[in-house]
Amino acid sequence: MDTLTSLRRAVRFAIGTPLLVGSTLVAGLPALAQAPAASAADGLEEVVIFGRGETRQLQGVTSAQIDYLPAGTSPLKAIEKLPGVNFQSADPYGAYEWSARIVVRGFNQNQMGFTFDGVPLGDMSYGNHNGLHISRAVPTENVGRVLLSQGSGSLATASSNNLGGTIEFFSRDPSETLSADLELTGGSDSTQRVFGRLDSGALGGLGTRVFVSAVDSTTDKWKGSGEQSQRMYTLKVLQPFGENGAKLTAYWNQSERAERDYHDLSYDIIRRRGSDWDNYAPNWTAAVAAGNACAAAAFSAPICDDAYWDASGIREDSLGYLALKLPLGESFRVDLTGYTHTNEGQGLWGTPYVPTPGGAPLSVRTTEYDIDRQGLIAAATLELGAHEINGGVWIERNDFEQARRFYAEPNVAAPTQSFTSFRSNPLLTQWEYAFDTETTQLHLQDTWRISDTLRVNLGFKAMKVENTARTIVGPNKTGTIDADEGFLPQAGFAWTLPGGGELFGNYAQNARAFVSANTAGPFSTTAAGFAATKDTLRPETSETFELGWRFRGETVEGVLTAYTVSFDDRLLAIQQGPGIVGNPAVLANVGSVTSRGVEAALAWRPTRQLTWFNSFAWNDSQYDDNFLNNGVVVPVGGKQVTDAPELLVKTELAWDTGSFFARVDGSYVDERFYTYLNQGSAKAYTLLNASAGYRFTDVAVFEELMVQAAVTNLADKNYISTIGSNGFVNADPGGTAQTLLRGAPRQLFVTLKARF
Fold first, then answer.
1. What's the first-to-final CA gap in the chain, in angstroms?
2. Helix (H), strand (E) at residue 59
3. Element at 393 (helix H, strand E)
4. Which element (helix H / strand E) includes 76?
5. How do strand 740-742 and strand 113-116 relate by DSSP bridges?
6. Backbone angles phi, psi at 469, to 5 degrees
């Protein structure tokens, strides 16, 4: 699709959807209104944050926006309406980790930074090697706000992979008053979710505040067989000291997650089997027959890969931190955070490529993960007249073990083990590696208030990340590789204009550390490939310029930003063959990428009850250079970057009277390529979602009762959501690349919330 055609479609959508939304609300819900809290009408920022005073592009949402969505929805999905955000998932919640993908300005989530209350979450990939997904760090109901820096995050961000933007998640603090919250959700595909939270209020003379919460959530897959479930237990304690804002915060979260996977599709499978096609489970007979046919065909696709017996991901995480904010006088303060995170995980696939000797013509293949990481973040801020000087250090030690194992299915008549339980006693271990990653990052910056209207930031960060691998089983990749960047500058300004407008600009350099895993980065290639490249590989770097204008009136607020990004030494681990086979990747330096674009957002509140939010983004991300794959030139120069839509248009109309509330939103996502040569793509699509509810106050023992209904994919659109689930390919002339996932059809959820 050419740019002009895409632009025409986007304009039609931007004009037509609000009219549809408005007519729907006026016809059916004349008394309904915007925010899920009565106080949301008090200011635009309470739902959408526009980052006033910041020297870089920054927006965010508060818990009021998250409350619109079905209970348990990923907070990532809450920010997909912000300009430049392409978020995809095969489930209606955006929480299914195998499919969850976020792309901003051509950078995917592996190239972005993520933090939770300042604690690093790593790159939030499915096979996390250095962190965990936000869906396992905090229940959605406990999220207070989410901030997105599209271009470059703060120098103080604890991340070693944020070539592109950063996303910061913040949890709600314990309440100052004694209260209890209970939420019950049911809906499509036997969804059942229970959330409970108890706040102590301020205790005694010390003012200690505590909350504890628990979540139990299960839902069937919307196609195929299997259940996705999660239990979470959370504790947060806040202890204030004195009158100067000093406080000590303790946090602990335990997550137990098991999700049955959807089968990765190709266009060839969709043509032959339909987009509702999935794995064989619970049809064991069909899986055994397919395994026998695969062996008879000498393990050749598509017989082996049309479907597998079953697949799942299991994760158990413990995340905790202790954070101290300590003002020392009026002009000096210290912030300290120590954290710990442990993870045990298995990704399971029922594979016909390794039959069980003397048993079924298949086995269960796992990729196994064990993370044990600890870190410290320390910062100090000194105010000297017109200058605010901030410096700090982040250090982390991460011990990560990864293995590929196979487990027997000895019974031909019936399966013997569950796909939602950890496996033990493997049939064989194909490979196993232990990785030690040591991270040190420093930053120093000066914020200079030149005048009442002009503020300038100048600073830099330095990082050194050393990755050491130790071979336990498999090809020898023992060795060390490091990323050492001593000076990554950042500079910006914010200039307040007459009338309340604001100009801002930012320049930043960033670098990405190497990945310590056998399934990604320099260690994922062959032993010979690693030995040949470990001393010559350069870390990926980026250079970002952005210039923007924020504006605000009594009923309107918005932002307009232009940017250009140069991304150098881009490394690609090119998948060889079907993902389930697990062949070593071919690592290639594909040169540079140039991205240019424009982003805009506008929030209009013509009355206290009605809000209309719109965002628009145009992004042109192109590969600058051809590259070699096994000695063959791949002519990608001038091609569009995979999974980077040119146009994104989002709109949301919401209405709130304080009792009734309703919202309808729409999104247009342009064509996205899953081949580097731009020969295969997911078509552009438009989605609509809606929610409505009613609040009752002071009912018997309840301070507030609320009932809310939410519908996702209102028009029941059949579309491809996630692309690249099994990586990207150079070309796909036969449409056989199994790297696509269909989006969820229309789903309905009803939530009852009670506050005591």
1. 54
2. strand 59-62
3. strand 387-407
4. helix 75-78
5. unpaired
6. -110, 140
- Rounded CA separation 513/464 (Å): 8
Residue whose pair of structure tokens reads 């989605």 in the numeric block: 687
Is residue 5 scored above 60 in pLDDT?
no
Percent of the chain with pLDDT over 70: 92
Residue type, 286: A
Return the DSSP state at 474.
S
Q: How many CA atoms lie within 13 A of 220 on its CB side?
A: 10
Nearest-angstrom CA–CA distance, 659 and 654:
13
Task: Please name which of 708, 693, 755, 753 lies closest in space to residue 194, comparing C-alpha atoms.
Answer: 753
Is it the case that residue 30 has pLDDT exceeding 60? no
pLDDT of 414 over the 50 cut: yes
330 CB neighbour count, 10 Å cutoff: 8
Decide the pairing of beta strands 119-120 and 113-116: antiparallel
Lookup: tokens for 279: 């794995």
DSSP structure string for 134-197 = GGGTS-GGGEEEEEEESS---TT---S--SS-EEEEEEPPPPSS-EEEEEEEEEGGGEEEEEEE
**pLDDT of res. 630:** 74
348-357, 410-419, 565-574: which has the minimum mean pLDDT?
565-574
Task: Indicate the SS3 state at residue 9.
Answer: helix
**CA dist., res. 386 & res. 579, Å (int):** 56
Is residue 181 within 8 A of residue 93, CB to CB? The reply is no
Cut 0.90: pTM above it: yes
Report the phi/psi class of residue 124: left, alpha or beta, with left for phi > 0 and alpha for psi in -120 to 50.
Answer: left
pLDDT band at 12 (very low <50, low <70, confident <90, very high): very low
What CA–CA distance (Å, rounded) separates 281 from 226? Answer: 8
As a whole number of angstroms, the distance between CA 137 and CA 229 comes to 15
The first and second tokens of residue 626, run together, are 């051809």
- Spatial distance between the Cα atoms of 472 and 454, rounded to a whole number of angstroms: 57
- Please say whether the beta carbons of 160 and 401 come within 8 A: no
What per-residue confidence (pLDDT) applies to 242?
Answer: 84
Closest among 480, 428, 600, 642 to 57, alpha carbons compared = 600
Q: Mean pLDDT over residues 633-651, rounded?
A: 95
Q: Which residue, among 513, 510, 511, 512, has the nearest Cα to 481 in the 3D structure? A: 513
pLDDT tens-place string over residues 362-386: 999 999 999 999 999 999 999 999 9
236 pLDDT higher than 70: yes
Q: Supply the pLDDT for residue 583.
A: 64
Residue 34 reports pLDDT greater than 50:
no
Of 562, 566, 564, 553, nearest to 503 (Cα)?
562
Chain CA centroid to CA 687, Å: 20
Mean pLDDT of 503-525: 93
d(Cα 419, Cα 349) in Å, to the nearest integer?
A: 9
346 has pLDDT over 90: yes
DSSP characters over 118-133: TEE-TT--TT-SS---
pLDDT band for 526, please (50, 70, 90 cuts).
Answer: confident
Angstrom distances, CA of residue 313 to CA of 342, 344, 348, 403, 420:
17, 11, 6, 15, 8
At residue 39, the pLDDT reads 33
Amino acid at 528: A
Q: What ranges in 522-611 are assigned the alpha helix state H?
A: 527-533
- CA-based angle 673:153:386, to the nearest 5? 155
Locate 233 and state its tokens: 């237990």
C-alpha 221/C-alpha 234 separation (Å) is 26
pLDDT tens string 246-260? 999 999 999 999 999
What is the distance between the alpha carbons of residues 671 and 669, in angstroms, rounded to a whole number? 7
What is the Cα–Cα distance from 302 to 643, expressed in whole angstroms? 25
Contact between 640 and 19 (Cβ < 8 Å):
no
Residue 628, pLDDT score: 79
User: What pLDDT was estimated at residue 585?
Assistant: 62
Q: Do 71 and 78 contact (CB within 8 A), yes or no? A: no
